[in-house]
Write a structure and sequence with these properties.
This protein is mainly beta and 197 residues long. Helices cover 6% and strands 41% of the residues.
């Protein structure tokens, strides 16, 4: 099974000339991490719901995505017609299915994309080495949100939020920019490494 392992870092320089901002090149780490973020769309009795998820592994011609349970279930009723959209294949949703096991206490669920090869998914293209260590965080450290806030696709916040503390397996942070569509997305450190869902 392929999964997260290792760490990589980089930085980007923004240049200003004669008072005119020169559009900086995209941060390659910010762009790379988007390849692990997916958009999820599901149908419920009261309409369609969307959110984000994180690709965390691939094996046996399946892709595994972690998300929050409240995106994919309404109480104990699962959403139907699970559609998974990848960053590298925007506009071409793939069929997914919900794993039968989920964690209500931690609000976690797993979506599986079966027959990955037949659905045109290159599992070797996922940057599974982009995981950070939450134990390295200290109070006030910058953290970033990745997801689909208010429907804006594959958004990684520009202004960081502040990390507060770790409480058991929960990471607490303060945010003024948490919106619908962030649910199920990633919390990133300043190196744009995954810290949690």
């Amino acid at each position: 099974m392929k999964r997260f392992a290792g760490v990589a870092t980089a930085s980007v320089l923004v240049v200003l000339l004669s008072g005119t901002a020169v559009r900086p090149q995209s941060n390659p780490l910010r762009e790379e991490i988007k390849r692990l973020i997916v958009r999820l769309d599901l149908k419920f009795e009261d309409g369609t719901r969307f959110g984000a998820g994180i690709v965390f592994g691939a094996a046996n011609d399946e892709v595994y995505i972690v998300t929050v349970n409240h995106v994919v279930r309404d109480g104990d009723r699962p959403g139907q017609d699970v559609q998974v959209e990848l960053y590298t294949e925007r506009g071409k949703p793939r069929s997914g299915k919900l794993a039968t096991h989920f964690d209500v206490d931690h609000d976690l669920a797993v979506v599986i994309v079966p027959n990955a090869k037949a659905q045109g998914i290159d599992v070797d293209a996922f940057p599974f080495d982009r995981v950070g260590d939450p134990a390295e965080l200290t109070e006030g450290d910058p953290v970033f949100l990745a997801g689909h806030p208010q429907g804006v696709p594959w958004s990684v916040s520009v202004t960081p939020d502040g990390f507060v503390e770790t409480q058991q397996e929960w990471l607490r942070f303060e945010s003024k920019s948490l919106f619908p569509g962030h649910s199920g997305g990633a919390l990133l450190n300043s190196r744009f490494e995954m810290l949690g869902c």
